[in-house]
Amino acid sequence: MVKSFPLSPFQSVAVLDHAPVAELVSSVDDRSLLYANRLAKGQCLC
């Protein structure tokens, strides 16, 4: 059986910040940028 352990918002940001890929998160409603990790910011993707 697989148990689910949801991440806190702080843990989610830590995971995204240290991912080896550029991560951009946008709003579903108007596609405004909500979050960009350090790699995305370093590549000037946002």
Folded structure, characterized:
This protein has 46 residues and is of the alpha+beta class. It has one domain (9-42). The chain has 2 helices and 2 strands; from the N terminus they run αββα. It has helices at 9-17, 38-42; strands at residues 24-26, 33-36. Strands 1-2 form a two-stranded antiparallel ribbon. The chain is extended and about 40 Å long. The protein starts with 8 loop residues before the first helix and ends with a helix. The relative contact order is 0.20.
What would the keywords be for this entry?
46 residues; alpha+beta; 2 helices; 15% strand; extended
How are the secondary structure elements laid out?
Elements: H1 9-17, E1 24-26, E2 33-36, H2 38-42
- Principal-axes geometry comes out as extended
Residues in β-strands, percent: 15-25%
Terminal Cα separation, in Å? 40 Å
Strand order of the largest sheet: 1-2
- Class by helix and strand content? alpha+beta
- Rg on CA atoms, Å: 13 Å
In the predicted model, the low-confidence regions spanning at least 5 consecutive residues are none
What portion of residues is helical?
25-40%
Describe the structure concisely for a colleague:
Helix content is 30%, strand content 15%. The chain is an alpha+beta fold and 46 residues long. Strands 1-2 form a two-stranded antiparallel ribbon.
